[in-house]
Amino acid sequence: MNTDPRSALAALIAALERHYEAAASSRGDDDPALEAATEGLTTAFDAYDDALFDAYDIATPLIVFDGEDDDDDFDDDDDDYDDLDVEGDDDGFEDEDTDEDEADFPTR
């Protein structure tokens, strides 16, 4: 699907305006009009991003948030920190200020 980036941009702007209007008059997150406008905005953004890339080999610096996977992205990163030892903090620094520490530094 080779769409003109200018017309895809116009459709994206219109979708942003529809989303704004739906958000401004929304009765909550589960409002059907807001959900439809959100889906339309996502579709219009994807079309614009694809058209821009097809025409100029350039992508937008944006990522569409998909609420279904929001916890999956963070679960993968948790494994990177499993080996950190939080309880036996041996970094050489004291965690709390004490009166002893204040005596080491003159005050004015």
Explain what the structure shows.
With 108 residues, the protein is mostly helical. Helices cover 53% and strands 0% of the residues. The chain contains four helices and no strands. Helix 1 (5-24) packs antiparallel against helix 2. The N and C termini lie far apart (72 Å). The model has no long low-confidence stretch (mean pLDDT 79). Residues 66-108 are annotated as: Disordered. This is DNA primase.
Low-pLDDT windows of residues:
none
Written as H for each helix and E for each strand, in order along the chain, the element string is HHHH
In terms of DSSP E residues, the strand content is: under 5%
Query: How many strand segments?
Result: 0
| Outline type | flat
Distance between the termini: 72 Å
Q: What does the oligomeric state look like here?
A: single chain
> What is the count of helical runs?
4
Q: How helical, in percent, are the residues?
A: 40-55%
How large, in whole angstroms, is the Cα Rg?
Answer: 25 Å
Mean pLDDT equals 79
Q: Which structural class do the helices and strands define?
A: mainly alpha
Region (Disordered): 66-108
Protein name: DNA primase
Organism: Brachybacterium endophyticum
